[in-house]
Structures are given as C-alpha cells and as structure tokens.
Automatic annotation (TrEMBL):
One of its GO terms (molecular function) is protein phosphatase regulator activity. GO terms for cellular component: cytosol; protein serine/threonine phosphatase complex. This is TATA-binding protein interacting (TIP20) domain-containing protein. InterPro entries: ARM-like, ARM-type_fold, PPP4R4.
Amino acid sequence: MDDFFFSEKEAEGCFDGDMSPSDLEKLEVEEDMPEIPRADLLLRTGLKQQKLSVLVSLPKVLAATNSKENLVTILDAIKHVWKKGEAENDVDIINEVFTCLQNLASITCDGKIITYPMTSLFEEFDAMMRQYHEEKVTAVFLLTDDQVTKQLLPLVLEFVHELQVKDHAEVASHCVAAMIPRLSGSLKKTQIIRIGIEKGDVSQGAGSRLICCLILGVLTASTLLSEQDIDGLFFQKVKVMAFQTLLSLYDYFPPRDRRDVILPVVAEILEHPPSYLISPLARLFGRLAFKLFTLGDFTSDHIATFQACYTTLSRSDCPDVRLDCARNLPAVVQAFGPAQYSPHLDDLLQAFTQDTSEPIRRSVVSGLHEVAALLGPQRAQRYLKATSLAVFKDESPTVQGHLIACLPSFVPTICTGVDDDTKNTYIDAMLKAILHHHTILAAGRWREQMTVLDALRHFPTFISSTQLFERVCPLLFELMNAGARPVQVEAARVLVAVNRDNKITANRVNVLLRLRKEYALGKNFWQRTLYLDACNFACDCYSHQYFRTNYLDPAIDLLEV
C-alpha cells in the first residue's frame, strides 16, 4: 500500500462506499515522486480523504523540504483545493485549509507548532500569552515574517472575505489570529482591521458578524486596536442602524411609550448629536419631524429643540448634510407649522438658495412651491416672493429651470388675494426672467427646454391673455425655430393648446396667421412638417368646424407643394 498512498493517513476512509475505476486510479502515486510534487498532485486530483491527509501533513512536509519555490507550489495547490471545496460547500475541506494555513504560520523549523491564543477570560488569556511569548523567544519559525506577510496573509484574507457560513467562523478567525504576531509593517495589520470591520456590517450574515467579533477580539487583545477604535469603527454602525430602526418603528409604539420613553431619548440626541449620527439624522430629520406631527407628538416643548438641531445641521460644513437638510425643508415647515416660520427659518431658506453647492440650491428651489402651499398666501408673499425672483439671478440655468418647473404650483399661491397691479407686476418680472433663461440656456440642453415647455402649458390658468400673447407665445415660436426636434414638436403642441385659452380673439388670430405664414407656407421641409404636427394637435383641442376652417385648409394646400 505504500506505493499508492502519500502516507498511512491517506488510506483512512478511502475505500468507504463504492469506488469507480477512475477514483481508484487517483489512489495510485508514483513510488519515486518527490514529496512536494506528490502533495501538489494529490491536492489537485486526489480524493477527499487524500486531500485532508495531505493538508494535515503539509506543515511538516514543507519543514523537511523548505524553499521559496516549494512554498509557492503548495500555496497554489491550497488555493485550488479551497475553490473546489467552497464550490461544493465541503465543510471538512474548508476547515482543514484554514487549519493548514494557521499551522504554516505557526510551525518552527523543527516541526513544532506554536499556536497564538484566542481571546478568553483575562487570567486564562494572560497566562496563554505569556507561554506563547516564552516559546516564541527561542523558536525559529519555518517561514519568515516577510513570507507570512506577503504570501500567506493575502491568501487568508481572500478566503475570509468570501466566507459567509457560520460553521467556518471560528477556524477562519483562528487562522487570521495566527498571522497577527508574524506580520511586518502596519499596512497588513490595517488590512486585517478593515476586513474585520467589513465582516461586522449589519447587512452581513451571522457567520460574517461572528468572524468580526472574533477578529476584533484578537486585535484588541493584541493591542492593535483599542476599545475606542472598535467603538468608532464597528459599534457606531450598530448605533446608526438602531437609530434608523427606532425611527422606522416609531409609529408602532403606544402613545404612552412614545411620550415617556422614546421622545426623551430622541430629544437628548437632538440636543447633543454624536458625530456618527450627524449624517443619518440630517437625512431622516424630515421623516422624524413629520411622524411626530402626524401622530400629534410634536408639542411646543419640542419645537425649540428641533429648531436648534435643524439649524445646526443646516449650517454644517459638510455639503451632503446641508443637502439633506435642504431636501427636508418642506417636511420641517409642515411639522413646525406656518406660525413657527419665523425670520429664523427664512434665514435658513436664504442660506440654502445662496449656497455655494449647486445641488443644494437645486434641491431647495424644487421644493419652494411646497413651502409656499404650507405657509399660505400671506406668509408666502412676505417670505418667498422676493426669494423666487432672486433665484432667477442664479448663475446656474439648471437652478432657474427647477424654479420654472414648479411655477404652475407656486405662482397661484403667491398671487392669491393680491390686487391686479401687484399680480401683473410680479408675473411680468417672472416672464422676463423666463425669457432671459432661454437666452442663457445652451441649445443642446433640450431636456431642460422640455421641462420649461411642460411648465408653460399651465400658464394660461394664472396669467392674462395679453401676457400670454406678448410673452409666452413668442417664446414658443422661438423654441419651434431653434430647438431640437422633440422640443419643436412639444412647443407646437403647447402653442396650439395655450392659444385656445387666449380670451382675446385678435390675439388668437394673430397666432394662427403667424403659424400659417412661417410654417404652412414655410420654405423648409421641416417647417411645413411642423405645421402638420400642429394640425394633429389642433384636431384634439378644437371642434371639427374650427379645425377645418383654421387649420385644415392650409394643410390641404400643402398637397400641391
């Protein structure tokens, strides 16, 4: 049997069950084959029991024939065994691979394995550490610290990174622990810390989190990681997730528990928010305030605390925190109520609209119509009217475009209850700003032009027929001339629709005459095609008689062109 097996241990269990001829061939090994090539062959092509036997024997085999080339050969074979064992979810193979790598890092030149202790009770662990250091002083390890750092550790971390199963957590952590006292350089130790933190993420499975706990315990015991570092790197994630979960489940608690147990904790967090809660608190502030408002838990006692916290977050140095606060402004206004919209909150609005970060300005402008609706006409006129006109002076056409998009909802609130002169003055200023926006918007940004067109189709509900004819229709004709094809078609559709709402007959006729002259009788093919598109839209907007009289006859004349 010596001719067939690498060692006596390889024979154990090989003949259990039925064996196929191909399996029997795997048992045969050349008699004069050197030990390292024989180990490599069996690890790659042998039966499971042969692989397990070789993995057990590898540290001592390598001790007898140690060289750089042999180490590379063995590690490549181990990687091959690992991949196959992981694919087949073979618990025995995976555990033995980790044990083998652990022993390779711990074996001495005379074949003795000095095991680095795992964390336990203080007295017991302290005694084991003293014994380990005493043995290590006189020991000469088979592999140098440089070999462990550059060759063994990357392989171990690769294997640990892929692990999710709880059954392998302990042996994998023992393997990582064996590497720690043999490492040279802080970079590799940082890699162990990083993978420990990644494994401890709350989104990971139970096996990964167990690996995290075991590795962090070893790192702490080895004084590579202080308790404060662990709290900062790992447990803060848990606290953030706990805070988010508490807010998501807030409405499921009875009113008494919310009032007596949860709200005091939330208020304490708002008064002195920890640094790791700043970002999630800014992101969830609107949801928290809205929940308290809808459940009736938002009392006057909490308003000052919430306002102070929101102000602090809104003036943060971090642009992402300010962006979250800008997005949450409508929810905060709704929770505080119109009566609480003091000049203090208006100062925050002005700060958002003048922020150096364009995404923050875009975000707050996009919600301006919601704030106006929550404040009501009088307060909106007092606080938001001048702000809206100031936004049209923003250096970014995109920010201006976001305001134009919300004008159909914003303007009716601003103009409710005001005299005609004030209303017309404001709308004239707004329409001039829209025309200016068109001049500074690059021709290639047709999607933003489409957004403007979508807003213009709602303008007849709050502007006069004269303003519609003198301000809006010329802009629509300009977009029909200079815009991209989708913009031209949409501008024609909006022109046909808004002209129907013009209550002055002369204005409607003048638009029709210009449409016929420049498009039905246009010199270019695309102009005449655009007129036919306008006819298609008019067919849906007007009566059959009006359509036939004002649109169809010029279209029929095109048949003779």
